[in-house]
What we know:
mainly alpha
Amino acid sequence: MPAKLRDALSKRLYSGVRAPAARRSCSCSCLVRTEVFVLRNIRTLLDTARRVRSGDLGARTGLHDGKDELSQVGRDFDEMAETLQRQDLELKTAMQELQEQVITIR
Length: 106
């Protein structure tokens, strides 16, 4: 086989081998970044849920920017926490007013 033909075939063969490997590498890299993003947001949701459960009604996820499902869950969770915090404050205010009324009646 002539050297030029052999070199041309060799380059063609190796370029075909490298291209799929590069695509796989890119695919793996994209998958890892996506997994890190998803896991980070799930961890944020879990940590915030634990804080609210322990009584920190001011805890928020801060997941508001995206249009994905996890961002929607974060927004809804933050709205729920805001509602709980507001209701808790209203309840404490009402209890304080009742306590003051009881003191005044005595």
